[in-house]
Amino acid sequence: MTSSVRPRGVRNRGQLTGWHVLAILVVFFGATFAVDAVMIGDAYKTFSGEVATSPYEDGLAYDSQLDQQRAQASLGWRMTIGLAGRVIRLRAADAHGHPLTGLRFAASLERPATERGHRAIAFKGVSPGLYEADAGALSGAWDIRVSAVDAAHRRFDAERRLIAP
């Protein structure tokens, strides 16, 4: 019977050792992490952060939105919106601080982080420049969007965040 006895430290050529396995694992995971880092960096740099349900149509309407904002700024109207219990109060004044009367409103309430809970609200004139709407039972954060139009068809758009207890 013959046995093959090798001196200590001498290996057969092509033998896989623990150091080889360690080196393979380090190279594999190092390459994976490097590729992941590049992909994450590129994704972060190219993502605008905007999410739209109809981005093409929104892009086409952008110029008209800019025109509306310029027209609105030239009006000089000011609106303040606040929440008092179940009532949303809106005060509207012109550039000289005089109350705006006879406005027609299109308004809605929605949650900032979800599509659920969207509801339309109707403002009624209470006194010159003061309008109120019943908001119902609210709790937490809500976004209100208001579009006001006067008798001369001039429009003012406003958006605010309301916090209900």
Please write out the topology:
Elements: H1 18-46, H2 55-60, H3 62-75, E1 78-84, E2 87-93, E3 104-110, E4 119-121, E5 124-127, E6 130-134, E7 140-149, E8 155-164
Antiparallel strand pairs: 1-2, 2-6, 3-4, 3-7, 5-6, 7-8
Give structural notes.
This protein is of the alpha+beta class and 165 residues long. Helix content is 30%, strand content 32%. The chain contains three helices and eight strands; from the N terminus they run αααββββββββ. Strands 1-2-6-5 form a four-stranded antiparallel β-sheet, with no helix packed on it. A four-stranded antiparallel β-sheet has the order 4-3-7-8. The radius of gyration is 33 Å and the shape is elongated. The mean pLDDT is 87.
Relevant terms:
elongated
Structural class: alpha+beta
Strand content: 25-35%
Q: Profile the largest sheet.
A: 4 strands, antiparallel
- Helical fraction: 25-40%
Strand order of the largest sheet: 1-2-6-5
Mean pLDDT: 87
Which radius of gyration do the C-alpha atoms yield? Answer: 33 Å
CA-based shape: elongated
Distance between the termini: 91 Å
Helix and strand pattern? HHHEEEEEEEE
